[in-house]
Specification:
GO terms for molecular function: structural constituent of ribosome. This protein is an all-alpha fold and about 325 residues long. It is built from 15 helices and no strands. It folds into three domains: about 60 residues, no CATH class; about 120 residues, Helix Hairpins; about 110 residues, no CATH class.
C-alpha cells in the first residue's frame, strides 16, 4: 500500500521542493522494520559525515594560520604598507597614501608650487607679503565709505568693479582730499597684480597635480613606488641600495605584487613562473645573509613576515 502511494507521489511531486520532506515522513512512519533500520543507518552516516567535514574545515583553518607560506608569509607592518592599483584607481579615496608620481612626495610638491608662486611674483617685483590683512582692511575700510561690502571679500578687483558701476570710482581716487592718498593707488595696483598672478599659478598647480597624480599613471609606476618605499625602510645607511636586506625587501614587494595579480588572473602562466623565480632568488639572498650575519638575518625575516623554516625548507627548482 505504501509502495503504490509512494510511486504515485513521486511522479507528481518530483520537481517540487517538499519531495524530500515527503520521503522523510514516509520512511519514518513505515511499518517495515528493514526500511526503518536502513533509514536510521543512512541518517546517522550522513550526520557523521557532516560533522567530520566541519571538523576538518576548522582544523585546516587553525593549521593554516600557524603555517608560514614561503611565498607571502605572515602579514606585517611592511607587507600591509605595500600599495596596489585598487588603492588609486578605485572610486573610494584612501587617506594617508602618497598620491604623487615620479618619485615625488606630497610635501615636496607643495613646497615646489609655493616656490613657483614666489618666483612669479619676484619676476614682476612683488612678494606675497603685499596681500596681508592690514592692507586689505585699510582698502576695504576706505571702500566701505562709498559702497556696502562684504567682510569676507578679499578680491580687490571685484570691489573696483562695484565702485565703477556705482559711479564712486572718482571719489575713491580723489587725490585732493588728503596729501598721502597716492600710496593707495600703489597698494591697489600691487594687490590686484598679485591676486591675478595667484589665480594663474593656481590653474598651473591644478594642471600639474593632475599630471603628477598616481591615478593618471599605470601599474608599473605603483610598483616602482613600492620598491622605493622598501629601499627606504630596509637600507642600512642613506646611500644603501644593494644590501641583502634591501634586495630581499625589493623581491618581497615584487612577489606580493605578482601574487595579487595572480589572485585575479590565475591562468597567467608567465607571471606564475616569474613568481617562483623571485621566491627562489629571495631565498638565495636570505641564505647568504644567514651565513653572513645571524642577527641581521632574523631581524630582516621578521619584518618580511617569514620564518627560518619557510626560508630553508623552500624547494629550489
Amino acid at each position: 500500500m505504501i509502495t503504490v502511494f509512494f510511486k504515485k507521489c513521486r511522479s507528481s511531486l518530483y520537481k517540487k521542493t517538499y519531495y524530500s520532506a515527503l520521503i522523510y515522513i514516509l520512511l519514518r512512519i513505515s511499518e517495515f522494520h528493514s526500511i526503518n533500520i536502513r533509514w536510521k543507518q543512512s541518517h546517522t552516516a550522513i550526520h557523521r559525515k557532516k560533522q567530520n567535514i566541519e571538523k576538518q574545515k576548522r582544523l585546516k583553518e587553525e593549521r593554516s594560520s600557524k603555517i608560514c607560506s614561503s611565498t607571502i608569509g605572515f602579514p606585517t607592518e611592511f607587507t600591509r604598507s605595500i600599495l596596489y592599483p585598487h588603492h588609486f584607481f578605485s572610486s573610494e579615496a584612501i587617506s594617508g597614501i602618497n598620491q604623487a608620481n615620479f618619485f615625488f612626495s606630497d610635501t615636496e610638491l607643495n613646497k615646489l608650487f609655493k616656490l613657483s608662486k614666489e618666483a612669479s611674483l619676484r619676476r614682476v617685483g612683488l612678494s606675497s607679503s603685499v596681500i596681508n590683512k592690514s592692507c586689505l582692511e585699510e582698502l576695504k575700510k576706505k571702500a566701505s565709505e562709498y559702497i556696502e561690502i562684504d567682510e569676507n571679500t578679499e578680491n580687490i578687483e571685484a570691489l573696483l568693479e562695484i565702485l565703477s558701476k556705482n559711479g564712486k570710482i572718482k571719489e575713491f581716487f580723489d587725490l585732493e582730499k588728503e596729501k598721502n592718498e597716492e600710496s593707495i593707488i600703489v597698494k591697489l595696483v600691487s594687490i590686484c597684480k598679485t591676486q591675478k598672478i595667484f589665480e594663474q599659478e593656481k590653474k598651473k598647480e591644478d594642471v600639474m597635480r593632475r599630471l603628477m597624480d598616481l591615478k593618471n599613471s599605470n601599474s608599473k609606476a605603483i610598483q616602482l613606488l613600492n620598491i622605493t618605499m622598501a629601499i627606504q625602510k630596509f637600507r642600512q645607511h642613506e646611500l644603501d641600495t644593494g644590501s641583502p636586506e634591501v634586495q630581499a625587501a625589493v623581491f618581497t614587494v615584487r612577489i606580493h605584487y605578482i601574487n595579487f595579480h595572480l589572485s585575479f588572473h590565475y591562468k597567467d602562466k608567465n607571471s606564475l613562473k616569474s613568481l617562483r623565480h623571485l621566491v627562489h632568488k629571495r631565498q638565495a639572498i636570505l641564505k647568504y645573509l644567514r651565513r653572513k650575519d645571524y642577527d641581521r638575518y632574523f631581524s630582516c625575516i621578521k619584518k618580511l613576515g617569514l620564518t627560518d623554516n619557510a626560508v630553508l625548507n623552500e624547494i629550489t627548482i
